[in-house]
Amino acid sequence: MTTTAPRIGAFTPGPRDSIADVTGVTVGHCTLADGPIQTGVTVVRPHAGDAFRDTVPAAAVVINGFGKSVGLMQVNELGVLETPVALTNTFAVGTVATAQIRAAIGANPEVGRTAATVNPLVCECNDGYLNDLQALAVEAAHYDAALHAAAAEFAQGAVGAGRGMSCFGVKGGIGSASRIARTGAHHWMVGALVLANFGRPAALTIAGRPLGPRLVERLAAGGTAPRDQGSIIVVLATDAPLDHRQLRRVATRAAAGIARTGSNFGHGSGDIALAFSTAQTIPRASPAAIWTLRVVDEARLDPLFDAAADATEQAILHALFAAESVAGFAGHTREALTALLPDWPELLR
Amino acid sequence: MTTTAPRIGAFTPGPRDSIADVTGVTVGHCTLADGPIQTGVTVVRPHAGDAFRDTVPAAAVVINGFGKSVGLMQVNELGVLETPVALTNTFAVGTVATAQIRAAIGANPEVGRTAATVNPLVCECNDGYLNDLQALAVEAAHYDAALHAAAAEFAQGAVGAGRGMSCFGVKGGIGSASRIARTGAHHWMVGALVLANFGRPAALTIAGRPLGPRLVERLAAGGTAPRDQGSIIVVLATDAPLDHRQLRRVATRAAAGIARTGSNFGHGSGDIALAFSTAQTIPRASPAAIWTLRVVDEARLDPLFDAAADATEQAILHALFAAESVAGFAGHTREALTALLPDWPELLR
Amino acid sequence: MTTTAPRIGAFTPGPRDSIADVTGVTVGHCTLADGPIQTGVTVVRPHAGDAFRDTVPAAAVVINGFGKSVGLMQVNELGVLETPVALTNTFAVGTVATAQIRAAIGANPEVGRTAATVNPLVCECNDGYLNDLQALAVEAAHYDAALHAAAAEFAQGAVGAGRGMSCFGVKGGIGSASRIARTGAHHWMVGALVLANFGRPAALTIAGRPLGPRLVERLAAGGTAPRDQGSIIVVLATDAPLDHRQLRRVATRAAAGIARTGSNFGHGSGDIALAFSTAQTIPRASPAAIWTLRVVDEARLDPLFDAAADATEQAILHALFAAESVAGFAGHTREALTALLPDWPELLR
Amino acid sequence: MTTTAPRIGAFTPGPRDSIADVTGVTVGHCTLADGPIQTGVTVVRPHAGDAFRDTVPAAAVVINGFGKSVGLMQVNELGVLETPVALTNTFAVGTVATAQIRAAIGANPEVGRTAATVNPLVCECNDGYLNDLQALAVEAAHYDAALHAAAAEFAQGAVGAGRGMSCFGVKGGIGSASRIARTGAHHWMVGALVLANFGRPAALTIAGRPLGPRLVERLAAGGTAPRDQGSIIVVLATDAPLDHRQLRRVATRAAAGIARTGSNFGHGSGDIALAFSTAQTIPRASPAAIWTLRVVDEARLDPLFDAAADATEQAILHALFAAESVAGFAGHTREALTALLPDWPELLR
User: Fold this and answer.
1) Tell me: the pLDDT tens digits for B297-315?
2) D253 and which of B35, B63, B223, D309 could share a cystine (Cβ 3.0–4.6 Å)?
3) DSSP per-residue codes, A221-286
4) How far apart are CA C339 and CA A10, in angstroms?
5) Which of B10, B63, B309 sits opposite C264 (nearest CB)?
């Protein structure tokens, strides 16, 4: 992704500086952009295979639970993902969850019959400023389209689930980044993908510099009165071999990355972080009663924690710098950050 | 409800021995019973008003998180219910959640526009033995029908969401009970409603007596080989003034009631308890910055805990004794407990 | 242990029917019994080696958090035990924790210098009815004595930390039991040790039979007015290879065993369950950056859950049937259960 | 406290810019500074009365659980503080907890007899670089001294529990700050007190500016090789009427303040936040079965969240700028931040 966002932190990004630097992870979007309908679906696939048959270790952390995600409870009980991760708007969660069930049945006709039921996993943010939420425009086919579009190269900004999202009073949406964490002789990739829809303009902080006050001036000049609600979903992927408990610890560090952009996890914000490891899969129909799992030694986790926080912060910046201006529902518009602050390079000096 | 189930415990039930003994609480069903389709929706309304505008204090407890409920996260963050509680089958959760959103919009056109979005609350069990889960037969209209049918008098057993459920290898479903808890001069009503779909036949315990071995014999004679998966949803209501934290403590006690019927909260079981208080409502559009809440003194909670455990156990028995035999999907049948153990009164002696 | 307690459940116990059936686990007591001082310390060692250098996977579950245990937070963050498990009275927790620190320093002079600090792990119940709690009689040497006394053969009842405990209005204390869980070709041992100090007389249930009402009669005849506070600590051990998350699931099942003896987890009860696996140790000073762990396939956990619940229930019965009558502080006495209900075999028929 | 630390954030501090701006809150230290012994105890009293008889609403949040605090479990079950909050070094927790028990008994002879037992509340960080941890130098009398020294005016920096603490490779310790949060016509005070013992030098961030690289240079010039372990305890107080659940939400926001100073909550860090409200007390011996509580309307919490995050960040800066250089155990020294970076005002420009 060729955004010109400033790079934060001391870690080296992967070649794409996106979650797809974690080998096997792909991302797909379905974008709805038609007048008052500015919304969509984004899907993160943990690997190219069937996520129901070959699950991956995972954990979810609720930073602030004002949100309507589905599937987190079972992720934390069983410690695995069994579908791709779907992102969409708040009122589309039920529709997308049902689409995930249908997709799992299509690929595995035994789901809910001879096999267990499937656990849909859908996270959401509220895009109601730009998108006519009450129109319930997202349909099952949009999930399918996003799933089938999944690839290692994917767009960022005002696309997919990010189409109608707002962030710090400007246009938000999908952002992604990666960082390489070194522990001894090992190099691990940590990738983040965010659905960024949070933050008050006055609080915007980029690379530690408070750009918020300047942003507030520019927004006031434009007459916009941004609403103060929002949420952020953070999806973290790594090729380091980590178990559920360790992934829960990694996901907790997303909060640090979010905080450094200027958020205190507002009351109305559904701030959720999800982490999974691609280092090994756990087959559902296991012939063996005992598994062998590889895990990183606990005392060597810090570089992974730091990489997770930095990748999260960088992904938020990528969302802000990639998102173009969007006009939508009720005549509302969100300007691109770079349109309002074209002088950002000087402001960061 | 005129079931002949044995009464357990030392507490006195309310006049209906159902959750509707908590003043204002009503229950409605929509039952689908047509060949391979044996499923439905059950709705518990906390009061006669609008649940979005006038919320009630609530808390949810996950005993075993192998389940697909939606809405629990926000209940535990904000400490309130803002919709009726919906129960249905595992694959209908998304559809019913969307129906709840539509119903909230219908009643409150500002939802997701000038007001916050609404938090759907749907819990589920897997009725795939008797019901063709993959047919996804539940539609939004079925939620609406259950909601509109809500009344203080309601059927139990193989009705609503309970239509296709199995319990201890026999027919399960909806059961309800109530108990009066006394603390000093106060009398509080505690009601329970369960969606009972759990338990291995060998473990069935009624009023402390292990009927499981006898049940296994009778089931073997009939050639049935019951599957061993399941779940239970427990909804607890009380007119005692309790806050979120106290309701979480009350909901925890549902586990004791479940355990005494013979369950150890099996791996594949989504065992969830939800508790709410009707003692006061919290208006969404609050003119006042500070609220006054009444709460029971902490040291006086034990009778409420005991009543919650007993009402849960009793509600499970009511489900088992009320449920009629049902034949459904793939030629599967679940017999009524009383059909298999007509001699239960002697067995309990 | 030659108690004559009725055997509950369908599983087979190990040869000792105690937690020491899990190979390597040993238990030691130090008992203080001198007039108003009726208290002590009990220690469960996970293996014969150094618990700080060779940790074992572990998890803790808080059923009701009215308690003063120390060390549970770090067990759940890092997923391991790094000391033996100590049990004592409520006011001795600080003293025993300090003794654990001194013992770890003695065995590992680098603790808190070149190595990390050690996480003491001490759980407690309130023995203030029989023991003069305010005398703070437990000293560091008593922990050391219990540690050094640890053996596969150990006493139960009114010994060690159990010396002053009460249960259902009669004498409680230490109890232990084991059950063999079979999954396919594997046989796993699950052991439980309880410090039982909970329950109202009226609620006592043995093997499903409500003996409480009869017990209340006998207690009333003796003029005793039992207090209604208490707690239970459950320590579960297994040789099945389980990780932290799975051990958390196993520990959750202790609640079912407790409930079946007649408890609803009273307001004033600190009900805590702790589980650890001896299948492998995790060396603190790891030369390798990546570990290999064995874990049981998730879908095969149910026998372990059932064995944990049954071993817990059986251990409580062992405590009740092993404990002799004790007189202590302020002229208080707790009678042995078998002294008050010598006709219990008939009552259970 | 006349530190010259830069002021962060947009909120106005209270008159003292310390936790004592919350009316009734006082802080006391006992400092041990004698060669290899560089440690102590700090106590935060929620009000001038007896904390056992008149409890205050409280909640604790574990950000990273590599720590040995005692008492958090019961705070979260019952939702109240019942002792002052004590801070000390890792190996002194048991001793200080026992001192709290003795103090509670002294003030309330019925504790553990006719009244319930008391829940000690002690949090800790590891000061083993400057302090001879293994000497276990803290005694019960030091807790008593800190308690009796409690006052609205109190020292910051290398005092009390902060005496031996390190932070970002320089001298850390005790810091405090306050912020005024406005919701409508209401002004609430939010105060923070931190025991700051965390952070790698390279990550130090002050007011958004990365001073870490410069600090690393200066430390290298001095030949110091700072260890990378640590922890932070954050105590938040407010006069806003908040219940346990709301205080849990407030405490969660401490993580944002910590993150903005350059921490990702390292693996070895026990990062704990505790929040309490002084708006009303809850008497233990309640004649009334039902209480009336005042709580802030949920939708008006954001200013309190923001104030909590800012007060936490400011308190960390106060600790860093107030702490003088300290030499202690094994010839180790920690320089004051201002000694190593005397040019910090220019660096922040």
Assistant:
1) 999 999 999 999 999 999 9
2) D309
3) HTT-------EEEEEEEESS---HHHHHHHHHTHHHHHHTTT----TT-EEEEEEEE-S--EESS-
4) 72
5) B309
Task: Say if the Cβ atoms of D291 and B290 lie within 8 Å.
Answer: no
Mutate: best of A295, A300, A304, A305, partner C, most C CBs <10 A:
A295
Task: Report the pLDDT value the prediction gives residue D164, as an integer from 0 to 100.
Answer: 98
- Nearest CA to C276 out of C190, C195, C196 is that of C190
DSSP B262-302: T----TT-EEEEEEEE-S--EESS-S-SEEEEEEE-GGG-H
The answer to whether A168 and A203 have CB atoms below 8 angstroms apart is yes
Is there a contact between C245 and A249 if contact means CB atoms under 8 Å apart? no
- Chain A residues with CB under 8 Å of D298 CB are 267
DSSP letter string over C175-209? EEEEEEEEETTEEEEEEEEEEEE---GGG-EETTE
Active site residue A231: yes
Measure in Å the smallest separation between the Cα of A58 and chain C Cα atoms. 12
Q: Give tens-digit pLDDT for D57-92.
A: 999 999 999 999 999 999 999 999 999 999 999 999
Q: How many residues does chain A have?
A: 349
**Taking the complete model, does pTM exceed 0.90, yes or no?**
yes
Looking at the partner chain, which of D256, D266, D298 has a beta carbon nearest the beta carbon of A267? Answer: D298
Strands A270-277 and A54-65: antiparallel
**Mean pLDDT on D121-141:** 97
Do the chains contact at A267 and D208, CB–CB below 8 Å?
no
Q: Which amino acid makes up residue B3?
A: T
**Annotated catalytic residue within B166, B176, B178, B269:** B269
Q: Residue C80: closest CA among chain A residues belongs to which residue? A: A298
CA distance A311 to A334: 25
Cβ contacts of A309 on chain D, cutoff 8 Å: 259, 264
CA-based nearest distance D210→chain C, Å: 29
Cβ contacts of D78 on chain B, cutoff 8 Å: 298
CA dist D108 and D83 (Å) reads: 12
Specify the length of chain D in residues: 349
pLDDT computed for residue B224 by the predictor:
63
Q: Which two tokens stand for residue D168?
A: 């970002």
Name D194's bridge partners: D175, D234
Q: Which residues of C touch D72 (CB under 8 A)?
A: 73
Contact assessment for residue C175 and residue C125, using Cβ atoms and an 8 Å cutoff: no
Compute the distance between CA of residue A156 and CA of residue A2 in angstroms, rounded to an integer. 9
What single DSSP character describes residue B22?
Answer: S
Q: What is the ipTM of this complex?
A: 0.96
Contact D173, D158 (CB under 8 A): yes
Angle at A107 between CA A104 and CA A111, to 5 degrees: 55
- Chains touching D, CB cut-off 8 Å, 3+ pairs: A, B, C
Alpha helix segments (H runs only) across chain C: 72-78, 93-107, 140-148, 212-221, 244-252, 254-259, 302-322, 337-340, 344-347
Mean pLDDT within C244-249: 98
Query: Is C277 in the active site?
Result: no
Give the gap in angstroms from C-alpha C81 to the nearest C-alpha of chain A: 14
Q: How confident is the model at residue D226 (pLDDT cuts 50, 70, 90)?
A: low
Position A2 confidence tier, pLDDT thresholds 50, 70, 90: very low
- In chain B, which residues have their Cβ closer than 8 Å to the Cβ of C301? 267
3-state secondary structure string across A104-173: HHHHCCCCCCCCCCCCCCEEEECCCCCCCHHHCCCCHHHHHHHHHCCECCCCCECCHHHCCCEECCEECE
Q: Which residue type does C130 have?
A: L
The reported pLDDT for the residue numbered C228 is 55
Segment A293-304, tens digit of pLDDT: 999 999 999 999
Q: Tell me which residue in C67, C98, C229 faces D94 most closely, judged by beta carbons.
A: C98
For B105-117, the pLDDT digits (tens) are: 999 999 999 899 9
